Amino acid sequence: MATNGNESPKAVLEVNNLKIYYETPKGDVKAVDGVDFSLYEGEILGLVGESGCGKSTAAMGVLQLIVPPGRIVAGEIRMGDVDLLKLTGTELRKMRWTRLALIPQGAMNSLNPTMRISEQITDVIRQHEGKRSKDEMKTRILELLQWVGLPERIYNMYPHELSGGMKQRACIAMAIALNPAVIIADESTSALDVVVQRVVAQTMLKVKKAMGVSMIMIGHDMGLMAQMVDRMAVMYAGNIVEISGVEDIFKNPGHPYTELLIDSVPSLKERKPLKITEGITHDPRNPPPGCIFHLRCPFVMDRCRTEEPARQEIRPRQEVACHLYEKQEDGNYIDVRTIVTNP
Ligand SMILES: Nc1ncnc2c1ncn2[C@@H]1O[C@H](COP(=O)(O)OP(=O)(O)O)[C@@H](O)[C@H]1O
Ligand code: SF4
Ligand SMILES: [Mg+2]
After folding, report:
1. How far apart are CA 162 and CA 159, in angstroms?
2. Which ligand is nearest to the CA of 23?
3. 245 contacts 231 by C-beta, under 8 angstroms
4. Which of 13, 47, 44, 96 has the alpha carbon at shortest distance from 209?
5. DSSP 264-321
6. Neighbours of 250 (CB within 10 A)
7. Measuring CA to CA, which of 3, 114, 123, 335 is 20 to 30 A from 242?
8. Which residues lie at CB < 5 A from ion ligand 3?
9. 302 by DSSP, 3-state: which?
10. 150-200 residue pLDDT tens
């Protein structure tokens, strides 16, 4: 992670209090309900959580690709001095791909079946840079294919001629074509077999290192994430409940929901039972008061049912939204589960 000399990392993207709702006849689904995070220069931030917790909505929201019945209700999305939510449509289109690129969920299946891979990459470059000579374009595209480890012959191929892993790498080539500062990859390694997942993950790591790009990697495979990301944001029902350095989060998860997620990672040594069986239990149109997780939390206390916990840095690089952690006079946090009360 890059630092500015004072050892504080520099944020390339800051998302503050982002709220995105979907209108339905029975009320608004609060898919993203006050999300805050920063992405630092040169890092990979993992965004994890069960299906339906709002990961894709948040990603689409950052690029303002939300379409009705969805709408961005509130928030601020900053890249440097610019609040993306205040840009005009034209200004925003200029930033997409050049500053901020999204590989959407299912991107590899959305490639245009009637266009060769080279034509699809050409389209992205042309939209932003105008017409280029055929030779220049070809050289650039072949270079991009090389970056993502695809052979030259892919240049003239159609998507149906490529394996899943190759298509996914073609999507990465498209995302890096205009050298963006930030790439958001939504479930780019999902729906691939384990070996191919690793190849795609390695491609992303290589691209990140070589181009110095910052990435948000969305997924639900905690094992794969553990090997790739620098920090991890854990999302539950539209909220980020924990955001921590990857080693801290695996060694010492702070939020009870993070603990559940980690316990559900099948270990090679001991086959642990999958503890997450329920999914999000409340109606997303009517989230419970207090802590969003209190209906499923094994440690629920009275105050959890009424008071929403603020996210606090309970340990260095570990921010958790949970009433289990209380700040002491010396500034340190204590886990109330460790307090022994005298009978
Ligand atoms: N077009 C839509 N209309 C109504 N609800 C939606 C729509 N798209 C997504 N949702 C709801 O928003 C929530 C978050 O969905 P999504 O962002 O796709 O989650 P994830 O990517 O984490 O699986 C879910 O409850 C989902 O049902
Ligand atoms: S605030 Fe309470 S209900 Fe929520 S995660 Fe912490 S202990 Fe559980
Ligand atoms: Mg999704």
Report:
1. 5
2. 1
3. yes
4. 44
5. TSPPSSS-PPP---S---S-TTSPPSS-TTTTT-TT--GGGGTPPPPEEEEETTEEEE
6. 16
7. 3
8. 55-56, 105
9. helix
10. 999 999 999 999 999 999 999 999 999 999 999 999 999 888 888 888 888
Tokens of 47: 């965004």
* Amino acid identity at 225: M
Rounded to whole angstroms, how far apart are CA atoms 231 and 222?
12
The answer to whether 196 touches 165, Cβ cutoff 8 Å, is yes
Q: pLDDT tens, 268-314?
A: 445 454 455 567 778 889 999 999 999 999 999 999 999 999 999 99
Rounded distance between C-alpha atoms, residue 49 and residue 126, angstroms: 36
Pocket of ligand 2 (CB under 6 A): 255-256, 291, 293-294, 297, 299-301, 304, 309, 322-324
> From the alpha carbon of 309, which atom of ligand 2 is closest?
1
Predicted local confidence at residue 4, as pLDDT: 47
* Lowest-confidence pick of 52-61, 112-121, 132-141, 217-226: 217-226
pTM above 0.70, yes or no: yes
C-alpha 216/C-alpha 219 separation (Å) is 10
Ligand 1 atom at minimal distance to the Cα of residue 238: 14
Rg of the Cα atoms in the chain: 21
Domains of the chain, earliest start first: 11-338 (3.40.50.300)
Burial class, 89, CB count within 10 angstroms (exposed 0-12 / middle 13-18 / buried 19+): exposed
